[in-house]
Amino acid sequence: MLDLYISKIISMHECLSKGEIYKITKKIKNYKNEINEVLSDVLGMPVKKFNKKYRRKTIEWKLSNIGRLIEDKKIYKKLASIKAKYFRERNKLICSNLRLVWSIALKHYNNNLEKADYFGEGIKGLICAINHYDPDRGYCFSTYATQWINSAIKRAIDESSLIKIPVNLLWKFRAYEDLCRKTGKKLSAREFAKKKNISIGEAKKVITAHENLMRSYVSLNTLINEDENMELIDTLSDDSDYEKAIDKRISRNTLNSLIEEYLSLREKKIIKMRLGLDGESPSTFQEIGNKFNFSRQRAKQLQEKVFKELYKIIKKQDLITNLEYLFS
């Protein structure tokens, strides 16, 4: 369904010829220069110095951060006119290259992200390509944009991983994967070290880290029962340090009597459900939350609070017992 919707959007926009793309990119470059000139005048700075200082900033950043300093209405209207023309031409170029973005997004598609996410990240890469492209250098826009789109999608895949990996290590992983793909076999540490001119020890570290990363990981927030909205974390034991300390010090019967004596009616019910003191199996935080009409996190907080109170009472009673023994 999503594929059909995206295909419909793409089919609504025609592809442009090389000549048309060159004209549009030339216009975009001229509008950017005009915007920079207006903004440099606002700051009272020469254009060359302005371009050097803000060369890494996007047009959007310049317009929002420097454009708001404009007080003269004529200058503001002039800038608004150039801005409208710039974005009109840029949107035309984006729409004509959606087919390119979609074709690259499908090549990268796997289960980490949805297709729409790949498509969206690819469009971000296309916008970056338009912002950096210089038509006077002579190279083809689609070739230049492909590099940016690939880079944006790969970055999104890396960020979607459950384990965040440093960028320098990611490049080594990609180099190792590319070499394995080209040779058609899994490279040894010695072979990888020889091809990349690194030490065997470093190659072993890269290969070991890569193998560990390739293992399948499951999020604790994965739904295991959609009807009851139950996540994997709900099925795991989540005993706090206070609960462990209480279990070490006293028996269940003593704990039962303390619960009856010191806790409120709601706290009694929650702790008995959580620990299974009424002869039933222990309940999850989600089950407790559903019964008392609050969130799972709130159930966890209440348990922690009750165990802290019980732990203080037990420590105090132990101290009294020890004093009685000493002075008896």
How many domains comprise the coordinates?
Answer: 3
How many beta-strand segments? 2
Shape-level CATH architecture of the largest domain: Up-down Bundle
What form results from the Cα inertia axes? Answer: extended
For this structure, what is the CATH class of the largest domain?
A: Mainly Alpha
Q: Give the count of helical stretches.
A: 16
Task: Tell me roughly what share of residues is in helical segments.
Answer: over 70%
The main pleated sheet reads as: 2 strands, antiparallel
Classify the secondary structure makeup into a structural class: mainly alpha
Q: State the oligomer.
A: single chain
Strand order of the largest sheet: 1-2
How far apart the termini lie comes to 82 Å
- In CATH terms, what is the fold-level topology of the largest domain? Four Helix Bundle (Hemerythrin (Met), subunit A)
Helix/strand order, N-terminal first? HHHHHHHHHHHEEHHHHH
> Which residues form runs of ≥5 with pLDDT under 50?
322-328
Chain-averaged pLDDT? 78
